[in-house]
Amino acid sequence: MTVSKSRKPIVAGNWKMNKTVADATDLVNAIKRDLAGCKEVDVVLCPPFTALKAVSDLITETHIDLGAQNMHWEKNGAFTGEVSAEMIRELYCHYVILGHSERRAYFGETDEIVNKKTKAALEANLTPIVCVGETLDERESGRMTEVVQTQVRGSLKGLSARDLAESVIAYEPVWAIGTGKTASSEQAQEVHALIRKVIEDMADEAVAQSVRIQYGGSVKPGNAAELFGMPDIDGGLIGGAALEARSFIEIVRAAI
Ligand code: 13P
Fold it and tell me: pLDDT, tens digit, for every residue of 61-107?
């Protein structure tokens, strides 16, 4: 990286609805060969729920961490098809992705829902990776700042300074997800700085300087180093390129 930062970079693979247990086992074994001892970057794998246990067992003696892609905010009850914080915690998840734009777009998740989930995750000692980001239409009509600010404030509303500092935010412009169109490092940096300013307004400068903000959206081995080198970008949330060991390993290495 070109800029020295006090925050430890975090690179997470969001596998989305990909990988059976057999596929996940192959992928984790390949990733482990290179990254089992990686201490410079927090490396997090977020498989689908069905592969959490298998991946958890494979990474026990490594520095690689586990994350889920979603959870419900209630502790238990009649919520068919959902899982709770305690259930994923039991499988040694330390992280959970919340409010991904696909959840917001296809499953109706609002800032209010994401906020309830974020609070429930923190209460269960999970680190939330809270996703925010504007659509192309919102950017082109000049509403990017307002949209991102509203999502950050709404999703993180009512969190203590300590909880805010320990949360991870992922800035994922919707127009860059799975499209091959990455935000330029300057475009991404501008929004990361904006998010950090919002956190400063919600808490204080120390909290804003502690919170880690990942970039997500078509991150590849070829663009990762430049993005991660920006002053307010603390790693990435990786979709497509996390499904293949070689590209994921190269992206993690770009964060060192
Ligand atoms: P891609 O890296 O495939 O664009 O996906 C990004 C993403 O949505 C990660 O959560």
Answer: 999 999 999 999 999 999 999 999 999 999 999 999 999 999 999 99
3-state secondary structure of 127: strand
Q: Is 100 a catalytic residue?
A: yes
**Which of the residues in the chain have pLDDT under 70?**
1-4
Would you call 172 a catalytic residue per the annotation? yes
* Cβ(219) – ligand 1 distance below 6 Å: yes
Confidence (pLDDT) at 219 = 97
Q: Residue 2 has what pLDDT? A: 44
Q: What pLDDT does 5 receive?
A: 83
Rounded to the nearest 10 degrees, how much is the dihedral formed by the CA atoms of 223, 224, 226, 228? 160
**C-alpha 77 – ligand 1 centre gap (Å):** 31
Domains and CATH numbers, the chain: 10-215+234-241 (3.20.20.70)
For residue 216, give both structure tokens: 């997500």
Distance 78 CA to ligand 1 centre (A): 31
Flag whether the pTM goes above 0.85. Answer: yes
Ligand 1 centre distance from Cα of residue 25 (Å): 21
Place of tokens 């995750």: 121
Which among 100, 102, 109, 134 is annotated as catalytic? 100
The DSSP bridge pattern shows strands 65-68 and 10-14 to be unpaired
Instruction: Give the separation between CA 103 and CA 181, rounded to whole angstroms.
Output: 20
The predicted pLDDT at position 139 comes to 95
Which of 69, 103, 136, 172 gets mutated to test ligand 1 (max ligand atoms within 8 A of its CB)? 172
